[in-house]
Design goal:
alpha/beta; twelve-stranded parallel sheet; two-stranded antiparallel sheet; 16 strands; F-box_dom; F-box domain-containing protein
Length: 474
């Protein structure tokens, strides 16, 4: 008998709980007895890399449904990157290497497949196999997907839509192998991310594919969503009524503007955490063929929609990026028009429950010259109970991507001289600054930081897509 089996069973299980898949696989080969213990943990986390292993996994689930009930977490990664032309094609995924003999039994495992996914299964489409696997896992807690483009998830989005309709429950139970309702009653978290290029060039994602993710808001157990919800003026829930997603506590969404963000937040009235990428929109450029009615960041509208979350929101992160495009004559043009800062800049002061706050300086300062503004403008416009504050120097101006170091120094120095009066609970201040200005800002703020007594950090944040120094002379 191997030495490992002399360990108390509780200790063996504790080791399994903190071990990765590779370690678990090694443990399972030590002995048959240990394999029996470890196998449960091997099934708790399922990882798929786009290979044909998904077919073998499907076959095991169909043969032994009790194994499917053990799976709690699914992690899917579509490898590689795509060129723009490939993303525009309807079929962008390489077929799996699936034995033809296996296909009939896989289709027969779910009568629903006969109508919806039969053609995709027969064509060995990874998206269909992925959706079929997930449909057979009744106890999922989290789903993580890294995709090159959302159309890789067409079948998965169809599944989300199907399981989020209560009126279809009876049909679902009769259609899925094992007779369970694949409505994900335990699902708490869904993370869907795209490649870096797709995340900063939303033109790579079609609006209809992003809207296919909206059924997630109808899943009653879901608490967190991370997704590139790229929506324009044709926003539609696709149902007679909007969801009442009081269960959703955390959102991390990008490629969405204020008007549509308002619709999403109206459906999540008890939201506690919001991460919002506010300006990565290729279609804001006039040269891009997809129009958008509002080309400005409307602070007044933002103030109204955030105000509705003043009693629940404890974490708010707003990020942005300045993306410059090369025109035909070789010049670089900024993508974004200037920030609309009319109305009250203090849009965050009503958020009295906010503890963690990450914001571009422009959202609390406007676009005015700090030398001509109220020196306490930053202090006045911050939530009073903030504890952890991060300020980034992105500037939504076509001609000027970042605030100048001397402007940042002026504003932050004034704030640090009186922070206890305006934000008495502050514990930490972090500045994210373009790499050229970070050292100067750190040097000039050293004395006032030392006397402030708060934790302070400066992070050089060079944006690889910021081409503000490029010229047409190269």
């Amino acid at each position: 008998m191997s030495p490992q089996l002399h360990l108390p069973m509780e200790l063996i299980r504790m080791i399994c709980e903190v071990s990765d898949q590779s370690t678990l696989a090694s443990l399972s080969r030590v002995s048959k007895a240990l394999h029996t213990v470890v196998e449960d943990y091997l099934w708790i986390n399922y990882e798929w890399d786009g290979s044909s292993r998904v077919v073998k996994y499907l076959q095991r689930i169909i043969e032994k449904p009790e194994l499917a009930s053990l799976v709690k977490h699914v992690n899917i990664h579509f490898p590689g990157e795509l060129e723009y032309d490939e993303v525009l094609e309807s079929n962008i995924v390489e077929p799996l290497d699936v034995p033809k003999s296996a296909i009939p039994s896989l289709i027969a495992s779910s009568p629903e497949v006969q109508d919806n996914w039969k053609n995709e299964i027969e064509a060995s489409d990874p998206s269909a196999f992925l959706a079929l696997v997930i449909a057979l896992l009744p106890n999922l807690v989290s789903i993580r997907v890294h995709t090159r483009a959302l159309q890789e998830l067409d079948n998965l989005c169809e599944l989300f839509d199907w399981v989020s309709r209560p009126e279809d429950k009876e049909a679902r139970m009769s259609s899925v192998h094992g007779g369970h309702d694949p409505a994900f009653p335990h699902l708490r978290e869904v993370y869907i991310t795209s490649t870096d290029r797709a995340s900063v060039e939303p033109g790579w994602e079609r609006t209809n594919h992003a809207m296919d993710l909206l059924p997630l808001f109808y899943l009653p157990s879901l608490e967190h969503i991370t997704a590139p919800i790229h929506l324009q003026d044709n926003f539609s829930w696709g149902r007679p009524t909007q969801p009442n997603a009081e269960n959703i506590k955390s959102l991390d969404i990008s490629m969405i503007r204020e008007a549509n963000l308002a619709r999403v937040l109206a459906a999540t009235p008890l939201l506690e955490k919001l991460d919002w990428n506010w300006c990565s929109r290729l279609d804001m450029d006039p040269l891009y063929p997809v129009p958008i009615a509002d080309k400005h960041i409307n602070l007044q509208r933002l103030s109204v929609l955030l105000g509705k979350l003043s009693e629940t929101l404890t974490h708010l992160k707003i990020t942005g990026s300045i993306r410059r495009l090369a025109t035909e004559d070789g010049r670089f043009e900024g993508m974004f028009t200037k920030l609309v800062d009319d109305g009250n800049l203090g849009i965050f002061t009503p958020l009295t429950k906010l503890q963690t706050f990450h914001v571009p300086l422009s959202f609390v300062l406007g676009l005015h010259d700090p030398h001509k503004s109220d020196p306490l403008v930053l202090a006045r416009n911050l939530p009073s109970n903030v504890e952890y504050l991060t300020i980034s120097d992105e500037k939504p101006d076509p001609d000027d991507a970042h605030w100048l170091p001397e402007e940042i120094i002026l504003v932050v120095k004034a704030y640090l001289s009186c922070w206890k009066e305006w934000t008495p609970k502050l514990v930490s201040l972090k500045l994210e600054i373009g790499s050229k200005g970070a050292d100067l800002v750190a040097e000039e703020l050293a004395d006032v930081v030392a006397s402030s007594g708060i934790q302070f950090q400066i992070e050089a944040n060079p944006f690889p897509w910021d081409l503000s120094d490029s010229t047409d002379e190269s």
